Amino acid sequence: MRTLFAFTIALLAVVAVAPDQVMPWKPHLTWARPEFRPLVAGIISSGLLCLAAWLLPVPTLRVTNRWRGPFLGVGLLLLLQPWLHLALLASIAWRPSPRASDLVVAELGMAEWTMGRLGLMLLLALVAPVAEEWFFRGRLLPLVARKVGPRSAVTLTALAFAVAHGNPLQAMVALPVGLLLGWLRLTGHGLPRCILVHQVHNMLFLVAGPAFITVPWVGMLTAVIGVVMLWLAALTAEPRPWPRAWSHLAALALMVVLAAAAPLHRRVQDVLWVDATHRAIERGPIPDVVMAVRLDRLRQLGRLSGGRGEDLVAKLLQQPPARSDRLAMALVVVDPQAFAAWATTPTAHTVEHLILLSDFNLNSPALGEAFRACLARRPTPVVQAMVEEPEVIRRFLHLPDDAAVLRAALAGADGPGNRTRLLNMVERERPGQVADVLFTLPTAAIGPAERRFLFMRYPDANERLERLARTDPVRAAAFRVR
């Protein structure tokens, strides 16, 4: 009866942290602020799991006393991490979700650190592993081993450990970690060492999880550190598993294998990242603005180099999202030149794309770069967009810094009428600043539209031309020609 009661409490502990879609009870914690509700649920779950572990009997676990060095568990865990995250990335590429997409297109330190968020991370990194190891490896593993044998018990408790995490993505990560922890417990490592390995895993996943996916070299560096720790484990193990020279050779062999596997690991990771990011953009689990900010941050940090950015652009153009604004948002922040090439094709709706670009709620130099690239490729529709939508001028034309942009737009304007409309629109948005730009035009570019605009919109045009004549009489004379 006591064992049945313990398992019931353990089941309640799992339900306490079940996803909202499965068990939407967390919103009913009205006495807790929303930011603290996951933390409260985690505390309840850990407490229930500790109670279940305390209620279970304590059978003796027969263990082997081979190779119990202090570095073994952490070394194996670190060696496992790059391949674990590669499998995780493959799963996300196959079936994206909002939480999974957060790993692929990560926040990279932009998230607001609240007390609830910090408390939840401390709970998951330090407290939850104590409760989980006490129950699964400290109580459940010996209990099951007595019924089915130690090896089967390791497998069954690892499966239970994976299922208890509540969703397929976490279960896929928890299963190999559970097998490792069960093996460590079975080979004579005490419960404290299992807790330590579990804590290291959780801290790696919480703090550096996105880096394993977005930074290609992090995973292999972690594996190298794992090899070093395994080497230290072999040197300090009691009893020593083999001669010291063998430990050196084994560590060297593992390093060579990792070096040989690194290019393949990088290529596979890049392909999976492109597929996962494309699906996240295509299906839209992350809001448009948030996605744009994160992709722009990745580009600025150089995380899209090495072919990732080019491959993502090619994938987006080959399999574009259903929403063209979503495609435009992704292209402009990943590769502004690629956006310009896409937006200025003869069949593209260039004006609509540029107006959409001016509406993006994103403060990034990529937008200005994309606008200037469009102007260089196909100036006529760019001028039309500037004339039709004042927001385009307000967003991308800041005089006098962007005087070259205005000169290029005037050069690309189709006919004197469009030049006049463009000048009037810019003057309305940037009053008093257009004349100084006109005075920098090449003499051959000064026509009737510029002369008429100068004398109609600037009452002091003659005084300005007199000052210009002192330094550049040829250009001043070009404005006085009738």
Structure notes:
Helix 15 (350-359) crosses helix 18. The protein has 482 residues and is mainly alpha-helical. It is elongated and about 105 Å long. It has two domains: 2-272, no CATH class; 287-438, no CATH class. It has 24 helices and no strands.
Q: Can you lay out the helices and strands and say which pair or pack?
A:
Layout: H1 2-16, H2 37-55, H3 72-94, H4 98-104, H5 115-148, H6 150-163, H7 168-186, H8 191-214, H9 216-236, H10 244-283, H11 288-300, H12 308-318, H13 324-334, H14 336-343, H15 350-359, H16 365-377, H17 379-388, H18 390-396, H19 403-412, H20 415-429, H21 434-438, H22 448-457, H23 461-471, H24 473-480
Helix pairs in contact: 1-2, 2-5, 3-7, 3-8, 3-9, 3-10, 5-6, 5-8, 6-7, 7-8, 8-9, 9-10, 10-12, 11-13, 12-13, 13-14, 14-16, 15-17, 15-18, 16-17, 17-18, 17-19, 17-20, 20-22, 23-24
Short key terms for the protein model shown above:
elongated; mainly alpha; 482 residues
The coarse silhouette is elongated
Q: List SSEs in N-to-C order.
A: HHHHHHHHHHHHHHHHHHHHHHHH
Count of distinct structural domains: 2
Helix % is over 70%
Specify the biggest β-sheet: none
Q: Strand tally, please? A: 0
Radius of gyration: 32 Å
Count of helical stretches? 24
Alpha carbon gap, first and last residue: 106 Å
The chain-level mean pLDDT equals: 86
Structural class: mainly alpha
Beta-sheet strand percentage?
under 5%
